[in-house]
Here is the input.
Amino acid sequence: MESKNLEQLRSWLRAELDSSGKPLGKGYQASIDFYKSPFGNFALKRAHGNFPFRRLREATIRREFSVYQYLLDVPGIPKCLGLIDKKYLLLEHLQGQTFRKYETKLQDRDKFFKDLLTTVKKMHQAGVAHGDLKRKDNILVTQGEQPYVIDFGTAHLLRKDRYSWWNRWAFKRIAQADYNAWIKLKYQRRFENLSPADAKIYNPLPEERVARLVRIIWQKLTLRRLRVRLRLRKKI
Here is the structure.
């Protein structure tokens, strides 16, 4: 968004911030609201909580704004429209539902996950690893079942302007975690069903292996799968 429009929008927001927004979602650190303004529709992300936690979360939003600058030409990523007062992140508003809500309605899973994988690969090529792709609320399903990756609050940037072995090592691990998350979502954790091509993508990290083992043990101790089957039978 042009600086002139941003300045006009800033003035409009100061008057409408707490009255015109419609909630779209709320996370641990920030909330997102929909605004219909004279300058167009947009989603606004802002930190919540009391001082000083809110200040720290606003710093995260500023960092997220810098992440979006890497993703300007990546398909499947909402457009970032600007940052106002160093604490309000303006994003393109997309009509859709989270993958968590839409997962069982998907008509063409193969196409959906093929498109999502394309976005993930181009995102990595742009120097961004998401880091929390396994969370179903971080994937939006829009018209025509087009996937969009959202919420880059925990993303890792590959610093191409200077050499850093730690930065490159961390990026490689987090990028692999993104691919592993894609596999988990696509196959619903049924890893025995992996196709040969997808098996080459999947490479669980040590901490993921430990987490999976702990989850399996916990499910057995709590008879989770048995309880799920019993609930399904009652519905039938």
